[in-house]
Amino acid sequence: MTHEYRTHNCGELGRKNVGEQVRLSGWVHRIRDHGGLLFIDLRDHHGLTQCVVEPDSGEFAKAETVHAEWVVRIDGPVVARDEEAINRELATGEIEVRIVKLEILSKAEELPLPVFGEPDYPEDIRLKYRFLDLRRDTLHANIVKRSQIISSMRNRMVQQGFMEYQTPILTASSPEGARDFLVPSRVHPGKFYALPQAPQQFKQLIMMAGFDRYFQIAPCFRDEDARADRSPGEFYQLDIEMSFVTQEDVFEAIEPVLLGLFEEFGEGKKVAEEFPKIPFDEAFRKYGSDKPDLRNPIEMQEVSEHFRGGGFGIFAGILDKDEKNAIWAIPAPTGGSRAFCDRMNGWAQKEEKQPGLAYIFWRRTLPIDGPIDQQMFENLSQEKKLEYWEEHAIYEGAGPVAKNLGPERTEEMRKQLKLGEGDAVFFAAGNPKDFAEFAGRARNRVGSELKLTREDEFRFCWIVDFPMYEWDEENKKIDFSHNPFSMPQGGLEALEAAKTDEDLLALKAYQYDIVCNGIELSSGAIRNHLPEIMYKAFEIAGYEKEVLEEKFGGMLRALQYGAPPHGGIAPGVDRIVMLLCGEPNIREVTMFPMNQQAEDLLMGAPDTVSNEQLRELHIRLNLPKVKTDS
């Protein structure tokens, strides 16, 4: 043997190797006793190979002592399996290795969680023993796929003319929407670094320094609560910035990268090539969300006029109460049964804590006053019945709403929504800013329940024309709604022309999101590259000039020395991998994630530090008092 541990890995042997003497090393994946023959499935990073030892072998007794997850080295010849024993699902399924020599490299204690198979195990056990969890087939494959996706990202970015630059990890704290992770300075007592929430300012400074197309697989740090699509503490993004570009230039640069990634790693799922551009306001009107899942074909519509002035009294009263109120329709093609409508109503009440979900569903009937009566219809031939039905049958709305609204208004609404026999519609009523998100969830629920959502494809869209500002209800003031460094549409002139809060809230910015299958992959913007616009934009949001200069001094200085028009975006690496692996939780595509409480159970972080360390950092703890039972 030429190598101490292996001549081949456990995923590469095949029929071409039959007759060769090989050496393999790996973990014992599974042991099977088949009538005297002992089979050991040996696993390493690359795959799995079946090895067999016979009773008359001198290594049989040693092989009987081996347990799952022990690390062993095996020497022996490669032999072809009998035809009926071939495993077509295994890359090495046509061969096996006859064990001539077996050496135990290390033993494993009793496992706290199984490695073989994919059982659902408690999160705390999985994370505490993550090194074992990562041996499981699906999770191991996800992490490998993550590496391949990131490698492909880099290649595609370079092919698009971008260059990768690294930005600092220790930087200054800045108000960017989330809490910073702070790092105390030993040599500057009382001062703190911050871990970057994103390389936002640095990548803009790179543009001002004269570099044209930047990218980085950037770590970002935010002290915020965990979500299924975001790890607490840290995440990675494909950070991008470009000089001398419009919004359209950014789209044209990024679309081929994302399209290529999803085609390469989507495992045969259809990837829609069109990236529709949907204004923010329109997205909420049609989908109840700025993260619409376009695999679902349902589009909501306003139907207020059908209820105004009478008919269904509850909705008419809501419309009369406030001019901002409206009635939205959520069409449900093929959902026209009382059972389904009642199920949706129950979902709204129990899971969404709503009063209910009003509905109409349609069926077709023959009018009582038609050209012929029922007896005459029954006497027609089958062919004539069908002809008569198609010509004379009318749509009838069913349910309390239709009964009160009346047949004429119900029919006008059906035509507006282009619904037919066997279809239904649900309603959301009130101020759209209060019910839009609920209506969006109802739309998603209808699409999923009725199997209208096309699960076997990826669909992207751009959400554009975000509001520059929003109303901060807690502090009763105007604040930035998205990215404070964005260029307002209309520039300084638009900012100065806005005289009221309503004017400011109507201002749009060159801000955009890229969304895939209802998941926001990234926000981006064309940046504000003119200092006078930045001063005015921050003044409107309540930031005094001195605060702006203190927090963003480096950025302002750079803007004053000739800044190019520039813009960028930062698609989330973790979310892209999550989509491409078909996983609902980001934990399943992250090597060493924290738990929901932002704890690293494997390494024991966060942890206390010694008094000596605290003294070096000039820090004295002021811990909250622990409540005790009296």
Your description of this structure?
The chain has 630 residues and is an alpha+beta fold. The protein contains 22 helices and 25 strands. The strands form six sheets. An eight-stranded mixed sheet has the order 7-10-11-25-24-23-20-13, sandwiched between helices. Strand 23 and strand 24 form a beta hairpin. Helix 16 runs parallel beside helix 18 (531-540). The longest helix is centred in the first third of the chain and has 23 residues, at 137-159. The model has no long low-confidence stretch (mean pLDDT 92).
Task: Please describe the biggest sheet, giving its number of strands, its sense, and whether it closes into a barrel.
Answer: 8 strands, mixed
Which regions have little confidence, pLDDT < 50, spanning 5+ residues?
Answer: none
Q: Characterize the overall form.
A: globular
**Total of helices:** 22
- As laid out across the biggest beta sheet, the strand order is 7-10-11-25-24-23-20-13
Number of strands: 25
Helix content: 25-40%
Radius of gyration: 32 Å
Percent of residues in beta strands: 15-25%
Round the mean pLDDT to the nearest integer and report it: 92
The computed structural class is: alpha+beta
State the end-to-end CA separation.
72 Å
Which characteristics define this entry?
630 residues, alpha+beta, globular
